[in-house]
Amino acid sequence: MAATTDTDHEEHTAAPGTPPPAGRRRGAGRLAALAVSFLGELLITAGLVLGLFVAYSLWWTNVVADRAADRQAERVRDTWAREAGPSGPGALDTKAGIGFLHVPAMGAGEVLVEKGTSSEILNDGVAGYYTDPVEATLPASGEKGNFSLAAHRDGHGAKFHDIHKIKKGDPIVFETKDTWYVYKVYGILPETSKYNVDVLAPVPEESGREEAGHYITLTTCTPVYTSRYRYVVWGELVRTEKVDGDRTPPKELG
User: Fold this and answer.
1) Catalytic residue flag (residue 221)
2) Which of 217, 153, 222 minimizes the C-alpha distance to 187?
3) I need a labelling partner for 195 at 20 to 30 A (CA). Which of 25, 83, 94, 252 fits?
């Protein structure tokens, strides 16, 4: 039996701190690469899912809501046409949409107005008048008060998306079955708490008015794509026009 020499011992025993063999290093590298690749795939998948969600929220919900709003608007106008008498379109029908909002500064065309401001209502791409926490005063009632409305600013039709383009002095027109109500914007509140119900008061004192009148209030979420605050626009009735047989719009919509 051959004797073991010091030299043999040094050749077969790794010194402290010596790097592991190349094969072991390659195995660890493969595991790290697989982990990085797996994490990358997860991030890509998450990004795709997020992108699809954003597309759904900001595009597809608009498509669906606009279709629903168009169908309802057609039903309202068809009802008005069928019930038109020889002396004109007749009385206001409040069973479906009560009328159409026209705001030239927003460039959104006509917006159907329905009763209520719940998500179930507004998600159909319409504006809704408040019944809670402060009940809106409908223009056709003839009573003084505040015709307060809400609509989405992003997604689900986004009918008030461009509310920030409205300036003082701009017209707001509400079209009912038999009357055009022409308002003039006199106050704008770019940001307030979503719990601030005073902006909906029959006399919106926060707008600078102190006496009862015929007011209209538009509200929506702000900043865009959030619901943290509320954006508010106030207008005051300046005149009314009877709807003729051709439904000729007032000059403000010409």
Assistant:
1) yes
2) 217
3) 94
Number of other residues whose CB lies within 10 A of the CB of residue 46: 10
Q: How far apart are CA 62 and CA 156, in angstroms?
A: 4
> What amino acid occupies position 75?
R
Give the chain's mean pLDDT.
Answer: 84
Q: How far apart are CA 209 and CA 185, in angstroms?
A: 13
Query: Distance between CA atoms of 205 and 57, rounded to whole angstroms?
Result: 36
Find the helix or strand (DSSP H, E) in which 76 lies.
Answer: helix 61-82
Side chain identity, residue 30: R
**Where do the H-state alpha helices sit in 145-253?**
none
Q: Which amino acid is present at 227?
A: S
Give the Å distances, CA to CA, from 235 to 148, 157, 203: 10, 23, 12
Does the pLDDT value for residue 158 go beyond 80?
Answer: yes
Determine phi and psi for 14, rounding to 5 degrees.
-75, 135
DSSP 88: B
Q: Which has more pLDDT, 27 or 157?
A: 157
Report the alpha-carbon distance of residue 236 to residue 254 in Å, rounded: 20
Burial (Cβ within 10 Å: 0-12, 13-18, ≥19) of residue 123: middle
Catalytic residue among 156, 164, 214, 221: 221
Omega of the bond leading into 133 within 30 degrees of 0 (cis): yes
Active-site annotation holder among 152, 156, 161, 164: 152
Which residues lie below 8 Å from residue 103, measured CB to CB, with a gap of 6+? 111, 166, 170, 171, 172, 173, 218
Please tell me the pTM assigned to this model.
0.76
Kindly state the DSSP code that residue 207 receives in the 8-state scheme: G
- CATH 3.30.505.10 given to domain 59-253: no
